[in-house]
Specification:
Elements lengths: L15 H6 L1 H18 L4 H4 L1 E7 L10 E7 L1 H18 L11
Antiparallel strand pairs: 1-2
Protein name: Reverse transcriptase domain-containing protein
Length: 103
């Protein structure tokens, strides 16, 4: 999993650099959380939160339409999503068209 060290943290304050640096210490607890989440078919509410940051589209701002929203989501949740995606790709193999992006 690639970590960009300049990425902003999500609402939980966890950065990719923190996950990478503390991977050995965090692996057990996150594997417990992820496995429990899969067993219950439920994502913890703290992983679903996001912080919306308005980013100006152009230098001169005249109204709300001059901003675009950027959602900062949990780095931990993104890691979990990547693990699930890798697992699904592994078990489906060539059954899915590589150009299929939904359903």
């Amino acid at each position: 999993m690639m970590c960009v060290f300049r990425k902003a943290p999500g609402p939980d304050g966890v950065t990719p650099a923190c996950l990478k640096t503390c991977a050995d210490q965090l692996a057990f607890i996150f594997s417990q959380i992820f496995n429990r989440s899969l067993e219950l078919c439920e994502v913890p509410p703290c992983f679903k939160r996001s912080t919306i940051i308005p980013i100006p589209k152009k230098p001169k701002i005249t109204g709300l339409n001059d901003y675009r929203p950027v959602a900062l989501t949990s780095v931990v949740m993104k890691s979990f999503e990547r693990l699930v995606l890798a697992y699904l790709k592994n078990i489906t193999g060539p059954l899915l068209d590589p150009l299929q992006f939904a359903y």
